């Protein structure tokens, strides 16, 4: 039994009907997607793989959250998204694989998994070799074809579809053929370096014979002589030859390699296409570099994933009532200590985080009774110009924002101050 049978075994009849009888949908340009190949070969290039790994590793730290926990199936969706997307993956593994597929193929599909009651009880990121849109019985389906020839179909509106390089095609992101010339340069550079090393480790000397090699016997004698006096086991530092050789010269091997500037230019071309830079890749970035990388690479993926998951799980009416999915990421962990302390202080003073929330920002463990939000007292009402003093000694209720007295005295004059 294959993975498709485990995940989607009950969809065989539908798959057969859609594949055999459904009509292929074309876009406004008349493009048919019967030959839309997504598989990218560039993942074998070490630099590309390292860039994609860094990207996917960062995405895997995201925390999906249901925005309206009072909505239908909220607890179920929260568990699926934050703990167990499917029986084969954890949350971080799910996000890692999804981000890798998205980066390499510019298309990433999330397929819902259903229980026997027709309820969503999981999600799976699929990576088909080929995908096409078909219409059958008045519904639009996406048909996936895998490397082993297996096919599966699902209503397109139920599938989560993330797209990148989204320009010339109406339904799918484009492939990465634009990287082909740079990819060929990278592969040629690696091949040149390998060939140079191999040539340097083989032929070192060239000898000229006094006589002509007439038959196989002469050739064998020459080879035996060379093997007896070869340089592999010669510790004397000398190579002695007899009068059968007219001369012996060392081969001056000068392999053609790219200089440092040329190699740097090729690496920059790779980074320009796939994102990031050397500092991000080797984790030597500054706070500003990391923020720039996060905002330009990671945050756009989270925004699109939020939208895709929201549309997968909630209809338009539910979204109007506040239901949806939010992806959060604690990118403050990459900030320096000065920034963390400033953020913790400002957030805490304004009641935006609890004591434990402020401690978490500065990477410290929580304390007992630390889940209380406080606000400072020395504020002025913007409309009246009068100081706001009636919240001294008050804590903010985390549920509805109302204030309760901390020290048991309900004073309107701010008697909590000793000054």
What is the strand and helix layout of this fold?
Layout: H1 3-8, H2 12-21, E1 23-24, H3 46-59, E2 63-66, H4 74-82, H5 91-105, E3 107-114, E4 120-126, E5 130-136, E6 139-145, E7 151-155, E8 160-163, H6 180-200, E9 205-209, H7 216-228, E10 245-250, H8 260-274, H9 278-281, H10 287-313, H11 316-320, E11 325-328, H12 337-349, H13 355-361, E12 373-374, E13 379-380, E14 387-388, E15 394-396, E16 403-405
Antiparallel strand pairs: 1-5, 2-11, 3-4, 3-8, 5-6, 6-7, 9-10, 12-15, 13-14, 15-16
Helix pairs in contact: 3-5, 3-8, 6-8, 12-13
Number of strands: 16
The largest pleated sheet is described as: 4 strands, antiparallel
Biggest sheet: strand arrangement: 1-5-6-7
Helix content: 25-40%
Which stretches of 5+ consecutive residues score pLDDT under 50?
A: 403-419
Shape category: extended
Sheet-strand content, in percent, reads 15-25%
Tally of separate helices = 13
Through-space gap between termini: 77 Å
SSE arrangement, N to C: HHEHEHHEEEEEEHEHEHHHHEHHEEEEE
- Taking all residues together, what is the mean pLDDT? 79
Global Rg:
33 Å
Q: Helix/strand/pairing class, anyone?
A: alpha+beta
Properties at a glance:
single chain; 419 residues; alpha+beta; 3-stranded antiparallel β-sheet; 13 helices; 16 strands; extended
What can you see in these coordinates?
- It is a single chain.
- The protein is 38% helix and 17% strand.
- It is α+β, with helices and mostly antiparallel strands.
- The strands form six sheets. A four-stranded antiparallel β-sheet has the order 1-5-6-7, with helices on one face.
- The termini are far apart.
- Residues 403-419 have low confidence and may be disordered.
């Amino acid at each position: 039994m294959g993975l498709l049978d485990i995940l989607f075994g009950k969809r065989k009849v539908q798959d057969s009907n859609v594949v055999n009888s459904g009509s292929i949908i074309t876009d406004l340009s008349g493009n048919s997607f019967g030959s839309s190949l997504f598989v990218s070969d560039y993942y074998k290039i070490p630099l590309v793989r390292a860039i994609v790994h860094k990207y996917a590793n960062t995405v895997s730290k995201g925390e999906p959250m249901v925005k309206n926990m009072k909505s239908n199936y909220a607890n179920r969706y929260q568990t699926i998204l934050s703990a167990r997307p499917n029986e084969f993956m954890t949350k971080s593994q799910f996000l890692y694989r999804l981000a890798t597929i998205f980066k390499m193929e510019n298309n990433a599909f999330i397929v819902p998994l259903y229980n026997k009651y027709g309820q969503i009880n999981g999600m799976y990121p699929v990576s088909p070799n080929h995908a096409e849109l078909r219409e059958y019985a008045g519904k639009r389906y996406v048909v996936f074809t895998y490397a082993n020839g297996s096919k599966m179909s699902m209503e397109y509106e139920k599938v989560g579809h993330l797209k990148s390089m989204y320009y010339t095609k109406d339904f799918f992101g484009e492939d990465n053929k634009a990287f082909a010339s740079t990819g060929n340069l990278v592969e040629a550079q690696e091949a040149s370096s390998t060939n140079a090393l191999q040539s340097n480790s083989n032929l070192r000397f060239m000898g000229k014979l006094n006589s002509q090699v007439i038959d196989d016997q002469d050739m064998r004698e020459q080879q035996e002589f060379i093997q007896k006096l070869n340089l592999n086991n010669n510790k004397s530092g000398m190579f002695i030859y007899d009068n059968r050789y007219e001369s012996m010269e060392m081969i001056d091997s000068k392999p053609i390699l790219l200089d440092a500037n040329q190699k740097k230019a090729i690496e920059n071309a790779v980074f320009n296409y796939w994102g990031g830079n050397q500092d991000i890749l080797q984790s030597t970035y500054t706070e500003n570099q990391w923020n720039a990388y996060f905002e330009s690479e990671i945050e756009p993926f989270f925004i699109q994933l939020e939208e895709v998951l929201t549309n997968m799980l909630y209809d338009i009416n539910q979204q109007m009532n506040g239901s949806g999915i939010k992806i959060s990421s604690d990118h403050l962990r990459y900030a320096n200590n000065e920034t963390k302390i400033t953020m913790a202080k400002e957030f805490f003073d304004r009641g935006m985080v609890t004591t434990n929330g402020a401690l978490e920002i500065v990477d410290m463990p929580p304390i007992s009774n630390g889940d209380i939000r406080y606000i400072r007292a020395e504020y002025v009402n913007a409309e009246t110009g009068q100081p706001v003093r009636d919240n001294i000694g008050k804590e903010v209720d985390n549920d509805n924002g109302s204030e309760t007295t901390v020290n048991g005295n309900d004073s309107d004059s701010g008697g909590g101050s000793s000054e």
